[in-house]
Every structure is written in structure tokens, then in C-alpha cells.
Amino acid sequence: MTVLAVTGALVAFKKEWDYLQPAARRGEPAPITAMIPPADVAGIVLALDLPEAQGLEDINRIELRPGKHLYKVRLESAGTWSSPREIQVDASTGAVLNSGVRGDQLWMDIHSFAVFGQGTKLVLMTLAGISLLWLSLSGLYLFGFPPWHRARKRRRQSTL
């Protein structure tokens, strides 16, 4: 439960810390028809010759953010305990606006126990869910039953 609480708190602040999520920049304003296609964005990222981006299979996703006039390109993480890289590319000029590590993904994987494998994740998250349900129900019982029981006992004594 402590791991879930701490990692959940970290992920809640991902927009405030650049380590957890690189700050989103703004690209040059342009109509959507002037924005470069995703294939060109992939080429720009691969031309950076980053160790994390050696081929198309290393690109996890390319997201267009039209309100900010940029593409967010997310690369695959190098390993289980490492964070993926995010590169922000201007949607109209193709200039690289920002590049940084997405630390939030590592913390999300720890939060869900995915770093330990799919089987461990499913077992531990199921046990955590059942535990939270049990704690909630038993807490409600312990909170509500004694006053109810005392009130019932008083009513019974007052009728005698």
C-alpha cells in the first residue's frame, strides 16, 4: 500500500516536474494543412541518431498536439527499469523543441507493479484491490456498527 501511495503521489505531480514529464513547448502557429506528416516527424527523430531511436520499431507513438502546434514522439524505454524518452517536434517547421526523459512511465510501472512482469502485476494488483475493498468494508463496519449497536441497546432499555 505504501508503494501505491508514494508512486501515485509522484505521478499526480507529473506536469510540475520536468523529470516526470518534459515541459511542453509551443510550435510555430500554422494551419493544420501546413503541418508536416508523421512520417517526416519519424525521419527527423531518427536523424537525431539517439541510442534509443535506431529504427522505426523504437518509436512507441507519435502524437499531434494541434493546440500547441507540435508532435510528441515517444520512444521505447531501453529496459524494464528505465524511462522512455520524449521528443517534441514543431509541427510546421520540424524543429526539435524539447527532448527529455519520461520519468512518469517508470513510476507508473512501479505503481502497477508492471516492472516485475505481467503475472506479478496481475496477482499483486488483484490482491491490492481485494485488500482495499476489505479495508473499506471493515472500516465502515467498525465505524458504523458500534454506534448503531449502542443506539439499539438504548432503545431496547428505554422500552423496558
UniProtKB/TrEMBL annotation:
- InterPro entries recorded for this chain? PepSY-ass_TM (IPR005625)
Spans through the membrane: 122-145
Q: Which UniProt keywords apply?
A: Membrane, Transmembrane, Transmembrane helix
Q: What protein name is recorded for this chain? A: PepSY domain-containing protein
Annotated organism of origin: Pseudohaliea rubra DSM 19751
